Amino acid sequence: MAKAKIKIKNLYKIFGNKPDQAIALVRQGISKQELLDEHKHVLGLSNINIDIPAKRIHVIMGLSGSGKSTLIRHINRLIEPTDGQVIVDGDDVMEMSSDQLIQFRRFTASMVFQKFALLPHRTVAQNAAYGLTIQGINEREAVERSQRWLERVGLGGFEKHFPAQLSGGMQQRVGLARALATDAEILLMDEAFSALDPLIRNDMQGILLDLQKELHKTIVFITHDLDEALRIGDQISILRDGAVIQDGDPQDIIMRPADDYIADFIKDINRGRVIKVSTLMSKASRVAGPKFESTALLEDVLTVLNQSETESGAVVDDKGKVVGKITMKDAIKAMARPQRAETGTRYK
Amino acid sequence: MLEFLTEFPDMSRRDLRDFKLAIDGAFRDFSRANGEAIEGFFDPLLWFLIWLEKLLVATPWPFILIIVAGLAYLGSRSWKLAIGSMLSFALIGYFGMWEDTMSTIALISVATLLCVAIGMPLGIWMAKSDRVQSVITPILDVMQTIPIFVYLLPVLMLLGIGKVPGLIAVCVYAMPPMVRLTNLGIRLVDKDVLEAANAFGANDKQKLFGVQIPLALPNIFAGINQTIMMALAMVVIASMIGVRGLGIPVLQAIQNQYLALGFMNGLAIVGLAIIFDRVSQKYGKRLQEHRGGHDHG
Asked: What is the ipTM score, two decimals?
């Protein structure tokens, strides 16, 4: 795996009057509910350890209240942690002076927000240029430099409009252009597409993936939507009650959910459209039957195998060399949901 | 025993007298010692007020009419309002109140400038700190509710009768809305937008001038508008301590029961108030036009 760009180490966040006292209790293993009932402190994040690889899209997924928005705000220290480290390129963000932090936010990590958070009194062009003007670049040059990002997200021609004159999807494109214009290596996206309706959300995901193909930024993407996480994530961390409960690539999470909670989470996923043949193949070098690329989706594999009335097919790499074998039986097995634990208890 | 219940156990008459005398004496000594220095401190303000008044009176009336119409149009972008303002001024002049009106405008302008110059920074300071807010809010309450003559007394003892005490009296009464609405406006700035500014590395100055003040402008403008209105309401009181303007004839009318004189000058004040109010409100609205617009699906 690529080298970690951002390392989050033993991160704790406790909300309340005396977090320093509460953290001792948390370390001793008090539950979130007990902490709230007996000590009036809210456990925001509990011992988070995540390595976020460079130049990939790392999705942090969780339902509301899981602490995901709190977590992303620790990366650029919009929220102060109770304890722990966030190391970016070897420097601990938590140790930075306020000047260093300002530099970090200006040049290293930019952010896209769920509610867009555009400046209502500035035009689209001025909004896109905002990060650059904050860096100290004069307004005219900043607008010029951010122009290509506006065009890149498909907003050429809207420069003179004000945010309130645009639809939600277009406003978020401005938000994306604003974040890209600073040329920061890290892009923090806090439920960036959650406020958009499904079609527009799909569009925006496409735009992001296209951009990522050429930009190779380190993207931390927060979402509560599993489909979104599986579509854009190279790596997914699932958060529940302020703790990471599974960390892995999308295929991992689909094939081997760590617990009932996650198993329940993924039960409505269309497995055929997510699972790739490379996940299921067994190693082999000579196989008869139809050939599949290793990124082929299960759904397509099943269709082809069924039509060709063979029991197995060959998996080939991008040069056409056979690297593995996929059987009908494996494919069908993968379509079935993984079993929950024997007791059949559901998560609470 | 019964006497104790019916008579309030107050301070003895003699102690009370000594107490009052001590305060009066101390203040008199203070004003004797520092009166001149304090007067000197306010001199630039006095010169500015006199200069503006002379300028307005000396400017030929057709120019003033054109300037009034021009400013009204620039502020409101409405020809109706511009022509209406010009007509009101013409009527005021026709009924012989031109010079007094110019004096009043000079006073209101200087008072408003002063209130904005002091009130806005105070409001911003209040918005930044809850502790400052908890100290300043009761002071503002006092400024707005204390009977005007009560605080005029020390001002008069220090500075005597004249334009500066008048100006101070007006400002004490007219500044609170400016402070309050600036504070409110900055506190109401969208938290998400402010967070975005933070996330992009804006420093305090960039946040204040790039986000907080621009987003608070509608409220700040409401504050300026209120300040102008309250300053106009003080015109008659100010004239009691030697400020020239539309208040003087009103005072004469009260003393001599001149009904027509009183109404004419009173209505002139109302006219000014309506013009200032409409123009500044329209301007404030125009500032935020682009914020609500949903002309795009």
From this structure: 0.86
Helix (H, G, I), strand (E, B), or coil: what is residue A32? helix
- For A320, the token pair is 């056409």
Contact B197, B206 (CB under 8 A): yes
Contact criterion met (CB < 8 Å) for B201 and A119: no
A137 touches chain B (CB under 8 A): no
Helices (H) and strands (E) in chain A, counts: 15, 14
Domain boundary pick from A252, A268, A284: A268
Q: A177 pLDDT exceeds 60?
A: yes
CB pairs under 8 A between A and B: 81
The rounded radius of gyration (Å) of the Cα atoms in chain B is 23
CB atoms within 10 A of CB A285: 10
Q: Cβ B193–A162 below 8 Å, yes or no?
A: no
pTM beyond 0.95, yes or no = no
Tell me if the domain spanning B15-64+96-288 has CATH number 1.10.3720.10.
Answer: yes
Q: Does A161 touch chain B (CB under 8 A)?
A: yes
pLDDT at B297 exceeding the cut of 70: no
Q: Under a CB-based contact definition with an 8 Å cutoff, are residues A161 and A151 in contact?
A: no
Q: Are A122 and A257 contained in the same domain? A: yes
Chain B residue numbers with beta carbons less than 8 Å from the beta carbon of A118 are 193, 196
Point out the residue among B200, B203, B295 whose CB comes nearest to the CB of A110.
Answer: B200
Contact B75, B280 (CB under 8 A): yes
Beta-ladder partners of A109: A186
- Tokens at residue B101, please? 């009106």
CATH number of the structural domain spanning residue A277: 3.90.1280.20
Long-range contacts of A304-313 (CB under 8 A, 24+ apart): A305/A331, A312/A287, A312/A288, A313/A287, A313/A289
pLDDT of residue B192: 95
Which residue among A244, A268, A292 closes a domain?
Answer: A268
* Residue A1 in contact with partner chain B when CB distance is under 8 A: no
Q: Are residues A172 and A315 in the same domain?
A: no
List chain A residues with CB under 8 Å of B201: 101-107, 131, 134-135
The verdict on a CB contact (< 8 Å) between A167 and B296 is yes
User: Which residues does B114 contact at the CB level (< 8 Å), separation at least 6?
Assistant: B45, B167, B171
Question: A114: distance to nearest CA of chain B, Å?
Answer: 9
What pLDDT does B1 receive?
67
**CB-closest option in A115, A161, A182 to B192:** A115
Residue B261 CB burial class (10 angstroms; 0-12, 13-18, ≥19): middle
Tell whether B210 lies on the interface with A, counting CB pairs under 8 A: yes
Number of alpha carbons in the 13 Å side-chain half-sphere of residue B96 = 4
| Inter-chain CB proximity A113 and B192 less than 8 Å | yes
CB of B205 within 8 Å of a chain A CB? The answer is: no
What is residue B161's predicted lDDT score, i.e. its pLDDT?
A: 86
Number of domains in chain A: 2
Task: Kindly list the strands in the beta sheet with A186-190, ordered across the sheet, starting from the edge strand earlier in the chain.
Answer: A109-112, A186-190, A218-223, A57-61, A235-240, A243-248
